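User: Sequence for GGDEF domain-containing protein below. Tokens please.
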Amino acid sequence: MRTRTTGSRTSSRRPSRPACPRTSGRPPSPAPPSRSPVRRPHRAPPAPPANPAYRGSRTACGEGSRWHPGCPHHPSHPGIGGVGTMSTFAQITAVVAALTLTAAITAHLTGRRTAGRYRAALTAAAHAAHRDDLTGLGNRAGFHAALSAAAERSHPVAVIVINLDGTRTLVGRLGHRALDQLLVLTAGHLAHVASAVGGAVFRMRRDEFAVVLDNVADAPGHAGRLVAAVAEPTDLRLTRHRITVTVTACAGVAVFTPYEDPDQRRALGRADRAMRAAKTIGRGHTAVFDPVTMRGHDRPAAPDAGTGTR
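Assistant: Structure tokens for GGDEF domain-containing protein:
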């Protein structure tokens, strides 16, 4: 109803109604044609799976066999406890066991990795303790270790001491850097010649090397070949240009017989005395220790003199 107010007068109007066809004299409007309702084919609900956890009633909850939370007819979900699945306590136990096993495996692998690194570090430290930092050859400790191994086998070996000639003059003319390069290259030449006959080379002092050979009979010949290898021209790269230098060396030979004289330092002292005798003869000479001609007390060799040269 719609109300209209004008001043103090209020009027009401009712909506007009259609005239009755019987009273108005108009013919009635024809009725709309009837349409038959379209019937859609009935679709059966999907069959529930074979899992017994999917037990639901469409008539009970209206959701059929589909699981949804909070339904008393579907109290469990596949894989979260219930019929045919583990309970919550069993799941917690399984997770804790898996975590414990994983932690144990991780600790075991970590321990093995740590032990491997520790053994590698010990091996590297032992290797570095017997190696010279500049040339990569064995040092004095490595030399004595080689003589100790020969003493354990009771096998005589030849000890050759090689000392370079004129190193002070080279240092005064070209500097210590040139001497370092010369020592590295000379070490490579000596190692190449000694390894051909099964020998080992060691750097004893700044410009002095020692060689241990199993072939005692031909030790003087091997010493001569080692001295000849040192005398080969060597190229040094100090600036942009190469400098070719030639140095000589003297060698002394002695025999270390463990079953007669087990003192290793005495064998080194004898070879050092033979080398000094060769230097008195001249550059590039070799001498073999002779207890008759090289008289003197068999004292051990002098300790490492650091940067001292002859």
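The beta strands are 2-6, 9-13, 157-164, 200-203, 208-213, 234-237, 242-245, 249-256, 286-288.
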